[in-house]
Amino acid sequence: MSAIATPEGTIISFDQVIKQYDDEEPVLKGVSFEIERGKFYTLLGPSGCGKTTILRLIAGFAEPTKGSIYLNGQIINHIPANERQVNTVFQDYALFPHLNVFENVAFGLRIKKLKKDVITHKVQEALRFVNLVGYEQRAINEMSGGQRQRVAIARAIVNEPQVLLLDEPLSALDLKLRTEMQYILREMQQRLGITFIFVTHDQEEALAMSDWIFVMNGGRIEQSGTPNDIYDEPINRFVADFIGESNIVPGVMIEDYLVEFNGHRFECVDAGLRRNEAVEIVIRPEDLEIAALEQGKLRVRVDSQLFRGVHYEISCYDESGHEWLVHSTRKAEVGSEIGLYFDPEAIHVMRFGETEEEFDKRLEAYGEVESHEE
Ligand SMILES: Nc1ncnc2c1ncn2[C@@H]1O[C@H](COP(=O)(O)OP(=O)(O)OP(=O)(O)O)[C@@H](O)[C@H]1O
């Protein structure tokens, strides 16, 4: 095994990893990232974007076609799954139906041929962790969905892995249990201090649970960042659309901190784009406020309104026929003309189809352009 100097705290890294099956289009098209020890990471993206493939490569169930995967600074491309300190919790939990709870959790320890009393102690510890003490002798088919999932987690953590991979572990649960398990998992990760890599296509779940999110699309990472970064500053239309609801309109960057859309110029907080560059503007529905016509920055007609408990979801159209979605605690009158107000901070400017790599390059180049222009 060859070693590299990894930044302190890095446990896993991918360097330009490509995964291709036969002659088909690659399912991972050159993916690079770093995972730090002890944090909760989420791979988020639509079905088929390559999330499970990344987990399989980390677990050792598949090998990369090109590129390198490092665990603790060692290349592990060809290291067998059972020699990696990584465990997986699968979507269907993959529990053994003919074994009881205790034996399911003890399974890996028995394979390692540990002593009986050591096994009993470790299984008890793991069951205590997932709050299932007293269920040792229960058959798997006598457990609820949430309990089965906790057995699957106990079975994974009993091996004391450095990394726990969780592939859509909550997707089989109903909404209430799902929310409850989100809290439990998050709390469990913090208590254990193990690195969790969690796969989901549910953006709310990703925002609620993660320290860091990788948003994936078509075999690439579109953006990575904290839940706040990703929500407040989506890098392109795909991310803005995938994470939460957005109003996206075409615009032109006039100069730093000044953007034009809907035929008007607005103050904004974005800089670093070229003058007169075509851009896309994102404003989140909750950042739009209903105002009197003369106080609004936009003039719209209210088309429909739904009460959503916490807020009204109001659909409006501007003069050019563009729809604006507003989440407001105030009611509006359907059919009336109203103003919409927003702060300069509510405007987020995006370049067309820009990836994170392109974004970084642009920011680097910006410094050069600025000094050149002066
Ligand atoms: N063994 C395989 N042979 C050929 N193609 C495969 C194989 N495994 C996965 N793929 C393809 O790779 C692509 C990515 O699959 P992957 O399971 O990683 O996606 P995903 O993002 O996890 O999707 P989902 O949310 O639906 O599980 C899919 O188009 C899939 O059909």
Automatic annotation (TrEMBL):
GO terms for cellular component: ATP-binding cassette (ABC) transporter complex. Its EC number is 3.6.3.31. Residues 12-243 form the ABC transporter domain. SMART domains: AAA. Signal peptide: none annotated. Keywords: ATP-binding, Cell membrane, Hydrolase, Membrane, Nucleotide-binding, Translocase, Transport. The keyword Translocase applies. InterPro entries: AAA+_ATPase, ABC_SmlMolc_Importer, ABC_transporter-like_ATP-bd, ABC_transporter-like_CS, Mo/tungstate-bd_C_term_dom, P-loop_NTPase, PotA_ATP-bd, Transp-assoc_OB_typ2. It is an enzyme of class 3 (hydrolase). One of its GO terms (molecular function) is ATP binding. Gene3D superfamilies: 2.40.50.100, P-loop containing nucleotide triphosphate hydrolases. This is Spermidine/putrescine import ATP-binding protein PotA. It comes from Paenibacillus riograndensis SBR5.
